[in-house]
Every structure is written in structure tokens, then in C-alpha cells.
Amino acid sequence: MTLNRSLITPRTLKGFRDYLPEAMIPRERLMQTARQTFRSFGFAPIDTPALEYLEVLSGKGSDETDRQLYRFTDNGGRDVGMRFDLTVPLARFAAQHIASLQVPFKRYHIAPVWRGENTQAGRYREFVQCDFDTIGTESVMADIEMVVVIDALMSAIGIERFKIRINNRQILTGVLESLGLQDHSVAVLRSLDKLPKIGREKTAAEMVTSANISADQADAVLRLAECTGTPDQVLSTLSNIAGGNATAAQGIERLSQIVSGAIAGGAKAQRLQLDVSIARGLDYYTGVIVETFLDDLPAIGSVCSGGRYDNLAALFTKQHLPGIGASLGLDRLLTAMQQLELLPRVSTPAPVLITLFDDQRRDDYLRMAAALRSHGLAVEVYSEPKKLGAQLKYADEKGFEVAIVAGTQEWESGKVQVKDLKRKIAITADYRHDRPDDLVAAIRSILDESTQPRIAGT
RNA sequence: GUGGGUGUAGCUCAGUUGGUUAGAGCGUCGGAUUGUGGUUCCGAAUGUCGGGGGUUCGAAUCCCCUCACUCACCCCA
Question: What separation in angstroms does the CA of A25 have from each of A33, A270, A353, A398?
Fold first, then answer.
């Protein structure tokens, strides 16, 4: 052997990650749950290319966009970029295909996106977004549905303790109008978004300096953002503060409809909060805005955010295409669930291991595995006749919940051992290749009692 | 992008004002135990000290550059 000088160091790019089975299993389950939920509301799957013409992606063209965009010239001399979200590709997609799509068009899209930004905990350069949007309608029905989908999605994932904070940008817009501040909205909103983070005084100070408004005006905006209580209380307080401004009144009325509609649609009332301070930091949204926070881990931020935008595809078509949608922050949610110990720590997707005990009876183990699989159980057969202790250790460390032990005695007597690996107990089950029912029932009873955290839908 | 912190065995870390052969715990592997795993005991292996360059008789230790991770800020269509 020569020295290892010529070896290439195995490594991944900054902000890009490998996913080991233990990370990938809950990840796939989460995506599967999201898919099932979206589909149950009639959202249809689409996909778009990872690469787009640069002009498609940088159409909105801020400096920030340029800095974060992965861009290059392809071998044909075209300027191209990698998508940095799923909304801009959706806009292009809608403009290009709307003629052959029914409106309203409801789609979901689960796919990786890329941003060349600096990494932080939970923020990477390649990450997956789970988007669902409805385009082509301004109906409040779509607004309501977005809230209901978020509620259903979180519940399906197995999270019960969370709050969906809802706001309507029209209210702020209306109040800013009445204060004569409509031209300062972007700066004011940006500051407002920091309210929970830096507190009232600093927020007010920042508004005065960076948005260039008066202290009184800042105070008025902040008073609006500090309405708390039940949705009904907030709505009535807002009406008083907003006075007669028509835009704000319209926004308040719509919020009221969204809350009552969402409850009728199945969302739990105690999870809905109206919060005028959420502004999403963007001037992108024009109507309803939502963010979703975990009761047990609010510091991690919103795990599912979205809102309504007036004209999604204005850059690409003259056709008016209003839209509304939200995005599940898959990576952020996984980080949170890991911290809350809601994720199973397993590196096998199959709960049952058949130990290979008697190498002379390979065919019997294979038949047993086939019989169990035909009953819907995921089963692995150990590949070598190693010491039983070593096989059980393998099973335990990989996260199997059940091990089947069958040696000469068992095969001759027609009974096999079924070990519950978590509780360290064993039971006996009758087994014949043509009569696996007793064994199946024994395995099921162990799996049913398992305390292992699971994600619904698995 | 700005500023701070950290990189030593598979993991968590120790390593004195620069000094000889870089350590511990856990884990791993082998054995006690050729049909039963998380305990115990015995034994063993393992390091480009993140990488490159410099200062020095001598560098894990000091200096420069670089890469990665991390915290805060900026930003987040």
C-alpha cells in the first residue's frame, strides 16, 4: 500500500448535507404526511426544473437576490440559476400553463431549493420546501382553506400544541394610509416584524430612525400591533383603533370570516390567534398572512408560513393571477421535533428482524419473512448466522422493535420466540408457513404497545 | 456580508510559561460465554493534533493564510 496522498477527502460543500438513515427516515415520513394532507384537500402535485433561466429567477431583482442566487453560464452559453424558492417557479409555471389548467388551480410542491447565504443553525444552502398554493381566486374560501390545511397538517404530523397566528396586511396598510405613511410601509413593516424580538421601545426607536416617521406615528402603529386576546376581542379593539379607514375595515371583516370559517372547517379555535404584529418582514404579501408557532418551542420561529399575494405572475403574463399559499419549513420543524424528542431514533424502516439462527434452514427464514410481509409487516432477515447475542445487539441498536428467534427446537415444535426488544421480554407464538396468523398477531401486539414516538401516517 | 468563539482517537473532552514516546472516559473489537442483547470482568486496536506556510534547537501550544462548525448582527423575494 502506498501512502494515502492521492486519496480525495470525502466532504460535502458548506451548507449541503448528507442524510443518514436515522435522519432520513423521519424526514421521509414528514414529507409523506405532508403529501397525504395536501392531497386530501385536492391539491395536485407538480414539479419544475431545478435550473431556470436567470431572468426568470431574478425578475424581481434585488441586490439580495443576486447575492444568494446560485448562478452560472451553462455549456450552451445560457445564463441560468438554481431556484431559491418554489413560488417564483410557480409564477412562471402558472403564466406558461394557465391556459391548460383549470382555475382555481391548487398545487403542492415538495422539492429542494438553494440559497448561497451564510449558514446558521437550521439554515442551510440546500433545503426542502413543502409548498401548497391556490391561484386564480380571491375568494375568502381559499384563505380559510389555507388555515385549515395548516391545522390538519400539524395534527397529522402528531403536533397538537401550536398556534396559528393570523394577520391581514390590509389592516396595517389601511392604518398606515390614515396616518399618511403609505410610502413608508416597507420600512415600518420590517421594523414591526422585530417587535417580539427587540421589544417595544427599541422597535419604536427604529421606526423613527429607519422609517423616518414621528414618534407619535410609531406609537399608533405599535398600539395596533399590541391588541391581544381572543379573536373576537382583537377584532373589536382593532375596529376602534382603525377608525373609519375603509381598507382596514375591509381587512378586519375578512379576518373575521377567516376565523369563523376555519373553525367550521375543522381547525381548533384555541389554536387560532389574531396578531397584527406579524408582518413577515416582506412587502410581498398583500392580504392575509399566517405564521405557525409551537407552544413548546416558540423560539425556533415559525414552522409554517404563508399568505396572500395579489398578482403572483405579473412578471410573466398580463393575466391577473391572485394566489394564496403557505410553506412548511421541513428542516426547521425536524429540528424542533428532535429537540422535543418527538422523533423515533431508529436507523431501520422495518420493525421486525428475523434472526438467522440455523444456517441449514435458510429457506424457512425466507418463507417466514415473505409470509409476514404479505401481512403488511416490514421484515428484515439477518444475513449471517452470527452469534445470537450479536444479532440481538444489532437489532436493538438499529431500532428494531421485534426479533424472531427460531432454531431447531422451534422449527420442530412449530413455535417461535417473539422478543419484544424494548421491554426485554419474549413470548411464544405458533407458526407454520401456511398459518402465520398467530405470529402476525403476536408481532402486532408488541408494535401496538410500543412507546416509541412515531409520526402519524407510518 | 460584519464581528466573536471552537477544531486533539468513532464520540465527549484534558493537554502546564513552547520541551522528549499526545492522554482519559465512553464507544469499538476479541475473550470469559459455540441458543439469547443494554450489567460485570480481562485484554487489544485507533491520531495527517482541521489543512498549508512561518518563527524556533524544538510547535497540539506562538504568528499568518485557509477550510469547516458555531453564536450574534445583516438579510431572508
Answer: 12, 32, 17, 12
ipTM of the complex: 0.81
Indicate yes or no: strand B within 7 A of the C-beta of A109: no
Asked if A396 and A419 touch (Cβ cutoff 8 Å), the reply is no
CB A316 within 8 A of CB A96: yes
List of domains in chain A:
21-339 (3.30.930.10), 352-449 (3.40.50.800)
Could you tell me which residues come within 8 angstroms of residue A210 by beta carbon, excluding any fewer than 6 positions away?
A187, A190, A191
3-state secondary structure of A379: strand
Cell numbers placing A327: 410553506
* Cis peptide bond prior to A21, omega within 30° of 0: no
The reply to whether A28 has its C-beta less than 7 Å from any atom of strand B is: no
For the record, the C-alpha cell of A396 comes out as 436493538
Nucleotide B7 C1' to residue A352 CA (A): 40
CA of A394 to C1' of B37 (A): 8
A426 CB closer than 7 A to any strand B atom: yes
- pLDDT tens-place values along chain A, 458 residues long: 333 345 677 778 888 888 888 888 889 999 999 999 999 999 999 999 999 999 898 876 556 666 788 888 899 999 999 999 999 999 999 999 999 998 899 999 999 999 888 888 778 899 999 999 999 999 999 999 999 999 999 999 999 999 999 999 888 888 888 888 877 877 887 788 788 777 788 888 888 887 788 888 888 888 888 888 888 899 988 888 877 788 999 999 999 999 999 999 999 999 999 988 787 656 678 899 999 999 888 878 888 999 998 888 888 999 999 999 999 989 888 888 887 778 877 888 999 999 988 888 889 999 999 999 999 999 999 888 888 888 888 888 888 999 999 988 888 889 999 998 888 888 999 999 999 999 999 999 999 877 555 554 34
Long-range contacts of A99-106 (CB under 8 A, 24+ apart): A103/A135, A103/A136, A103/A137, A104/A134, A104/A135, A104/A136, A104/A137, A104/A139, A104/A142, A105/A134, A105/A135, A105/A136, A106/A41, A106/A42, A106/A43, A106/A44, A106/A132, A106/A133, A106/A134
Residue A59 vs residues A55, A129, A313, A326: alpha-carbon distances, Å: 5, 21, 11, 21
